Structures are given as structure tokens and as C-alpha cells.
Amino acid sequence: MSFVPGQPVTAVVQRIEIQKLRQGNNLILGFSIGGGIDQDPGQNPFSEDKTDKGIYVTRITPGGPADVAGLMMGDKIMQVNGWDMTMVTHDKARKRLTKKNEDVVRLLVTRKSLEEAVKHSMGTYHKQ
Amino acid sequence: MDNESTYSGYSYKSSHSRSSRKHRERRDRHRSKSRDSSIRADKSVIIQPPGEPLLDAESTRGDDRDDNWGETTTVVTGTSVDSISNEDLTRISKDLEDSSPLECRRYLSPALGAILGLFSLITPLAFLALPQLLWRDTLDPCGTPCEGLYISLAFKLLILLISTWALFLRPPRATLPRFFVFRCLLLALVFLFVASYWLFYGVRVLEPRETDYRGIVGYAASLVDALLFIQYLALVLLEVRHLQPAFCLKVVRTTDGVSRFYNVGHLSIQRAAVWVLDQYYSDFPVYNPALLNLPKSILTKKMSAFKVYNLGEENNTNNSTGQSRAMIAAAARRRDNSHNEYYYEEAEVERRVRKRKARLVVAVEEAFTHIKRHQEEDAATSSPKHPREVMDPREAAQAIFAPMARAMQKYLRATRQQSYHTMESIINHLQFCITHNMTPKAFLERYLIAGPTLQYLDNSRGRQWTLVSEEPVTASLRRGQVFCLRRLDFSLVVTVTPLPFLRLGEVFIDPKSHKFVMKLQSETSV
């Protein structure tokens, strides 16, 4: 998940579609985010590279929409509905996720196990 | 170590010529050799534990089967021989130092300087007085300008006198082996000045009986000015130039490795040596020869691993060398455990010293509680039935010395300091401490910490040091020079390094530029 500044970021991502749940007057997704370009990246427990200022999933309410959709704690959110989330402030990220006129958010998330899974499968393919 | 030291009365090198110095050295060496042989004949012969003698040249003459080889073989061993000869040496050197009379050489240079100084001081007065005495009638009368010059002359002479007293009339603290270059230069300069002034005066004034008295007074005033300037030059050369630090001297004592670093300015080697010795007496802890050796138990254990017996062989020259080689190989292969023993021995010694120190501190504290200062008002209130005996400090010290004497002696023995403190000196110190209201801890400070050498010195006689250097001692200090200051049983090795050149830069910080932000770490739930 480390990046070279100036070069395009490549990552293995998983597409997750979360249906928002209506609770009273709010639409909730059921997870918490942390990180952002205005935050301190050194305190992020989930990132490999401690200078990574991306948005990470820090908590998931069990049984909520995110949990149902398959989001996991520690995932880095790369895109939300097509909007980039790798270089945004914390507040901007929150706003993109909580737009009132959207019912569905489609996230592209990445995690370490995805890379390894792909490598694994590619490896067995090559052996054949 | 014995043979190298020179212990005659004038062991510092003569200032005159190299040849005379060499001659003196040869004479000293002869003397030292003869002394050595006489010393060696006195004491009993120590037989070296087997381990070494097979390597010794003397033992390889196996043909010479002598039954009393014990008496004729003199071999130098580890500690016992050195300790005896050291005592002899110090005793002899002390005798010599005591008996060396007031050296004439010591006072030659100050005497010369004093004569020259006096002569140059009375010269202006002589310049003024001579025309008045000799041809007073023919002199031009000279009123106010002359009197003004008289006043200025008088004050300048007074200042010259005072500053000469302040700068030059101090008792010299050291005799240097060679000429002190700057001082000689200045003396020569003064002599030259005064001589040329006298020459001019003699030719131009005395002979033709010059009548212009004002000119003569002006001439005398110019001489005084010149003398003042020479004194300024002397001040700069002798006192000021070496104040700015330029070199760092590392001084290491050869026997126990105590080292110090000092910053000095531009000096010649001999002046730097004197300066270092001044610092040595107040900075370096006193040299205690008893503290140096590894405990005998460790050393001898290493050597006495193998015992070799020669049983009745005539030609054992080859065999002995062969055996010695075998022994060296065996010793190298054997596992060396002496470091282990050293560690435990040192821990044991430390524990013992600490125990004795604790006993000493307690004893002294208790002893000090027995006396207190007698206040005058107590005399009125104390009952006449129990008059307290009023003592002076000496008696008080003797009274409280008894309970702490034993603990003190045991502690001094444990730290091997007993040769530096006699009972008399301890009582004197106790008296001193009582007089000045010191606490037991202040009294003990002198014995718990090894003080500087100056503390144990009695100032009755001068100290003899030998300067050993590869370069002439009037050369100035340079990078990488090494010289030694030798005394009888140890020496100080001085290494010179120049101080680094400092490039100081500047960064300006606006006081308003100190700003801080909080590190954020927020978590939002969506």
C-alpha cells in the first residue's frame, strides 16, 4: 500500500456495495473512518506505511450494513462512488460517504490479504 | 626503571652547551651505575619461580655446574626487588635534595636583570645631573618648559618603578634548563638601548659640554619613554601572548594512567612543562605506588603452573631450550583463568574497603559527639559541683582521637594510604577541624578521597623534574609533539594537539516564528 509520489497508485481492490440504512432522520452505513491528509498518519494502527494519509476503516458495527456487505476493519478506502479517497481531508471523506441523496455507496477498498490472495492464485497458475 | 632516572643534585640540564650537558649525563650515569651495584649487593637474592629461568641467558651455561648457584645468580623478579630499591632510591634522593645548597645558578638571571634594571632607572637621572654637576655655569637657563619636563619625567619614572616591581620583581618559581628566550631578548634590548643612549650622550653632550639644557632634559625624557615601551613589549611577550589558548595538552601519568587535558597558548616546551607541573600538583591525585600491583595471588598462580627439575645432566643446553619451548607451548594452550580470579579479588577488596569505611564513619561521628564548643554563658549556668574541664583544641583533639584511632588505622591500611598519614598529622587535622567547626564528614574528606599531590607536600624543598624531549626545549609547541617530565619513579607524558579552528555561523530566529499545531486523530462514524 505504499506509494511513490508522482506515480499512479496501483492496488488490488475489492468492490463493496453498501446499502444505507435509514435510522430516524439519518442514513447510516455502520462503520467509522479515520485518517485524512490533515490528520497524523503515525497513529494509524492499520496502515503498513506510517506516512499513509489515506482513509481507513477503524470500526464496524456488527450486523450493520457495512458488515453485511463484507467491509472489514482495517480496509483502506480508495474510491467512493467514483470519487478518490486517497488524498482527501477527513471532513471531505465524511461528506462523500454521507450524502443525503444517495442510498447506495460503492466503495473500492484494498487490504493486504487481497494482494496476497492474488499472488497466490497467480503463482499456482504459473506452476501449471 | 632504576637505571634511567638521574638522581644527582643538579639533574636539570645545564644551560650552557650541549657538550657540557653530555659530559654531565655521562657522569650521572656512572654515578648511578655504581650506586646500583652497591644497592644490589646489600639485599638477599631472590630466586625466581621456575617458568622463566630457562629463557634466561645465564642459565643456559649448563656446563658450569655450580653448587652455590643460588648466591651468584641475580635475577630481577616482579615486585619485591623493585620495592626495596625504590626505598633506597627515595632515601638517597631525599638526602641529595636536602643537602643541595642554594644554587648560584638559580639567582644568576634575576640578579642580572636587577642590575640592568637599576642601571637603566638611574640613567635618566644621571643624564640630568651630570651637566649640572660638571659645567653648571655655562648652561643655558631654562625655566618653565624644563620644569614641565621634570614633572613628566618624575611621574614616568615612578610608573616605571611601580610596574617593574609588579611584573618583574616576583620570586621565580622554576629554573628552566635552557635560556628563556624572551627574557634574554628583552634584557639584550634594554642593554642595547641604554648603551646606545649613553654612547650618544657621551659623544655629543659630555665631550663638547653642550649648553642647551632643555635639549638634554628632552633627551632624558625620551629615554624614559623608550624604557616604558620596552616594558610594554615585555608585558606582551612574557605575560599576554600565551593567554589565548591554542593547544590542548594531554598529560598522562605513566604508572597509573591518570590523565588530564589542559588548554595552553603559544609557549616554548620548557615553559609549557613548568605550566603543566603547576597544574599537576593541584589536579592529579597523589601517586600511591602501593595501589598498582595485581595481588600476588593472581600473578604467582600463573607462573607456578609447571615445576621443572634438572636432575644431574651435564649438557643440558639444548635440552633446556627444547624444554622451554615445550613449556611456552603448554602455557599457551592452558586455559587462562586469572581474569576470573582478578574479578573476584577486586570485588572482595572493594567489599572490605566499604566495610571499613562504614566502621570509620560511625566511629568518627560518635567521637565528635563527645565534645562541643564551650559557650561563655554556659560558665555562669553550669553548677559549681560539676565543673567541666575547658580544653584547648589540641587537647580536645587528643581526647577524641582515641576511640576512632583503630578504625582509622584499619581503613588506611585497607586503602594503602597509611604511609601518607601519620598519627601526628591525623591529630593535627582533627585539631584544625574542631577549631573551624567542621562536621565529621568534613574531617573525613581528607581520608576518603585521594587528594591532589599538593596536599601531601611539605614545601621545605624544591622538586626535581627532568624534561625529556626530542626537540630543543626552547622550540615552541607544535602539533604532534611529545615530551616527558620525569621523576624518580614515574613520569608524565605530554602530547600536544592544536585546538580546532572554529567557524561560527549565525542563524536568526524571529521570536514570533514559534508556532505549534495539535496532532489530530479523529474518528468519525458514518
Mean pLDDT of chain A: 88
In this structure, how is the largest beta sheet of chain B organized? 5 strands, antiparallel
Total helices of chain B: the number is 15
**Fraction in helix of chain B:** 40-55%
Number of helices of chain A: 3
Instruction: Report the C-alpha radius of gyration of chain A, rounded.
Output: 15 Å
CATH topology of chain A: Pdz3 Domain
Uncertain segments of chain A: none
- Strand-and-helix sequence of chain B, N→C? HHHHHHHEEHHHHHHHHEEEE
Q: How much of the polypeptide of chain A forms β-strand, as a percent range? A: 25-35%
Summed up, what is this model?
The complex is a heterodimer of chains A (128) and B (526). By secondary structure, chain A is of the alpha+beta class.
Explain what this protein looks like in three dimensions.
Chain A: GO terms for molecular function: protein kinase binding. Chain A: Keywords: Acetylation, Cell membrane, Cytoplasm, Membrane, Nucleus, Phosphoprotein, Wnt signaling pathway. Chain A: InterPro entries: PDZ, PDZ_sf, Synaptic_Scaffolding_LAP-MAGUK. The complex is a heterodimer of chains A (128) and B (526). With 128 residues, chain A is α+β, with helices and mostly antiparallel strands. Chain A has a single domain (13-125), classed as Pdz3 Domain (Roll), CATH 2.30.42.10. Chain A contains 3 helices and 8 strands; from the N terminus they run βββββαββαβα. In chain A, the strands form 2 sheets. In chain A, strands 1, 4, 5, 6, 7 and 8 form a 6-stranded antiparallel beta sheet that branches. With 526 residues, chain B is of the alpha+beta class. Among the domains of chain B are: 106-240, no CATH class; 247-288 and 460-498. Chain B is built from 15 helices and 6 strands. Chain B has helices spanning 18-42, 69-72, 80-99, 104-134, 144-168, 181-206, 213-240, 269-283, 296-303, 317-333, 338-368, 376-381, 393-414, 423-435, 440-448, and strands spanning 247-253, 259-264, 466-469, 482-486, 491-498, 523-525. Chain B has a 5-stranded antiparallel beta sheet with strand order 2-1-5-4-3, covered by helices on one side. The longest helix of chain B is centred in the first third of the chain and has 31 residues, at 104-134. Chain B starts with 17 loop residues before the first helix and ends with a strand. Residues 1-65, 76-87 and 95-100 of chain B have low confidence and may be disordered. Classes of the chains: A alpha+beta (128), B alpha+beta (526). β4 of chain A pairs antiparallel with β6 of chain B.
